[in-house]
Amino acid sequence: MSRPSITNVLFVCSQNRLRSPTAEQVFATRRDLEVMSAGTNNDADNPLTAELVTWADVIVVMEKTHRTKVQTRFRSALNGKRMICLDIPDDYAFMDPALITLLTARLARHFPSR
């Protein structure tokens, strides 16, 4: 029996305190995804590194500014990886039900439930 393929997904926001850790927690229960989160700011709880970018199969950013920062700082590590921008502003608390609904809805077409 072959093991289902696992996709490494990296969620990125600014501080890694609200949006990306919420996404990480929401999608951590998926058996087909391995998830981590990081922030683009130097003082983020878990700052984004080239190692994390290299680890990821798909990078999910919350805003266009995050996509630009990832592309600028980690161009060589990106190596043509798929990047998804959700356009979710920094208006939500950690594990905010409205944020969970938005994350789930916006990522449904990219990571359909199996």
TrEMBL record:
Q: SMART domains per the record?
A: LMWPc
- Pfam families noted in UniProt: LMWPc
The Phosphotyrosine protein phosphatase I domain sits at 7-113
The cross-references to InterPro entries, in alphabetical order and at most eight, read: Ptyr_pPase, Ptyr_pPase_sf, UCP029416_PTP
SUPFAM superfamilies, per database record? Phosphotyrosine protein phosphatases I
The protein's name: Phosphotyrosine protein phosphatase I domain-containing protein
**Which species does this protein come from?**
Sphingomonas pseudosanguinis
